[in-house]
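Researcher: I'd like a structural prediction for the single chain below. Treat it as a standalone chain; there are no partners to consider.
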Amino acid sequence: MSQTDHYDTEALNLAAPAPRGDDQEVETTQQDSDLDDLCERWVSWCSTRRFYAPAPKYASILGQMSGNTKPVRPGGPDAVNSPELMALHLAYLGQPDALDKRVFELYYVHRIRPIKRAADALEISRKHFYTVLRDFRRRLRMASNGILAGNEAARDALPHFVPDQRL
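Model: Treating it as a single chain, here is the predicted structure.
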């Protein structure tokens, strides 16, 4: 090591972590598969919410000029009215706009393929993309379980609530 060189480059190279291959798949469990299915149902559920309200009547000139946003297809998707999906939606809306939420949106909402390009655009590896996606889904599920439990507790506390006797 010379007088002007403050760092021993050989020691730094030896101390650096070994490069990881990006070819390894992220391990998936049955819970992750169930979460993926739940998120797919949520995307379908989100696309049917507009069927619950009548067609908008544009009263202002700006509203009349904007036209329809998206035509409704006859026989379009019609998801079930699920409290579980509603809680997931509220949990999703409450998440801060960060990398993990962007990864989730790219994967489920925008259906970006191939994943390698999306990961490159976000300046992360493909493996990290899937890891962030898995962790966000798990956090989203925990938040939605909390919302669902709070709603059920509030429902049970109502004086006029009668528990379902069909069980």
